[in-house]
Amino acid sequence: MTEPKRTRRGNGESSIYLGKDGKWHGRVTVGVKDDGKEDRRHVERKTRTEVVNAVRELEKQRDAGRVPKPGERWTLGKWLTHWLKEVALPSVSENTYAGYEVDVRVHLIPGLGAHRLTGPNRLQPDHLTRFYTKMQKQGSKPATAHHAHRTVRTALGEAVRRGILTENPAELAKPPRIEEEEIEPYTVEEAQRILLAAKGPNRARWVLALALGLRQGEALGLKWEDVDLDGGYLRIRKNRLRPKYEHGCGGTCGRKAGYCPARKQIRRETKATKSRAGRRTVGLPDELVKLLRKHREEQEALRATAAQLWTAKGYVFTSATGEPIVPNTDYHHWKQLLADAGVRDARLHDARHTAATVLLILGVDGRIVDAILGWEPGGAARMRARYMHVTDPMLSKVAKKVGAALWGSSAEDTT
After folding, report:
1. Which residues form the Tyr recombinase domain (predicted)?
2. Closest of 235, 227, 239, 240 to residue 292, by C-alpha
């Protein structure tokens, strides 16, 4: 039986024909290329039935707007590299980009980079799920695997928006489960011991953490222009960023960039707070106003001692030469302070939990607590619930107050 010859179709119609190579071919118009010409896709099969089915499937994808754009046959590794440089770098903060870069360089490209994004052997949700499990078996924490999942989901979401992918496999992959860590804030007695152990020119830094719950970046990014001691308030507007360096020696020192004798800082020192709620004005108790006045006097004395070595940048908390404090240095100072105070080890962020708990226990209105701590209105109730830690002594005190109200217990029992 002689196969029918190829016939001319109208503009935009699909065509099916038997080629000189003995295979069946189909061509489907799916749109317009960047240069304005028709984007006409080609499929090839061994039988006419197979090519008819392939053409119909491509037409369905076209009609649903799910046909990938033509171009480079992306692997995950190539796309992640492109996405980091061309999409993420110009549009996200330095800290966010740093997290993306580590996920891509350390985990995603070595573990999944060879997978193609399109085609019959493309990246599948199961590949991602098995990769997260493998990460944890090799020693990564669930939170690390979860962060890698969020990064690849974001990157592939951009590929979908740009028409490179028709769907995001990371949306269907099951991310690692993260158990919310139970946080135990410091008691008032422990906080007092920490403050008594705090010495040196930046003692007020720890008072701000324990009394007002300032985040690390907020405290280290604070400048004197943001502090009104006469009015009794301070404004939170900036966050201190982790420094990033490059070699100033051309890489000849044989050290990492951060330890190069001629290193150069390539990241700005601060950035604006992330949200409107984070940009806030906080009232200062009289005791804290006095402490900050004394801190400023001590800083002026330190400046006089440093003389020409002093770098005047206006930060409230500085190094011995006026430079802003590096977050990693601040972290180690905190750990040493805990050891000096003889209290249990905890994260620096736990000081913020302590401040939140004290404010709530003192009966400060929830909206005021939200404003002091910089919580977004939409998630404020959830954050208050997380930070509201009620310790045994507090429960006992509340029970005594209830007893006094209901049964007339003596006033001494409620103190």
Report:
1. 181-400
2. 227
pLDDT at 284 over 90: no
Q: Nearest Cα to 270, choosing from 101, 93, 91?
A: 93
Integer Cα distance of 154 and 159 in angstroms: 9
| CATH code (residue 193) | 1.10.443.10
Whether the CB-CB separation of 42 and 54 falls below 8 Å is answered with no
Q: What is the pLDDT of residues 217-244, one digit of tens each?
A: 889 999 999 999 998 888 888 888 888 8
Give the pair of three-digit tokens for residue 211: 């009394």
Q: Quote the domain boundaries for residue 262.
A: 188-349+363-376
User: In total, how many domains does the chain have?
Assistant: 3
Whether residue 353 contacts residue 185, with contact meaning beta carbons closer than 8 Å, is answered with yes
Token digits of residue 246: 């490059």
Q: And the tokens for 112? A: 């999944």
The predicted model scores a pTM of: 0.61
Q: pLDDT, tens digit, for every residue of 319-362?
A: 999 999 999 999 999 999 999 999 998 888 777 777 766 665 54
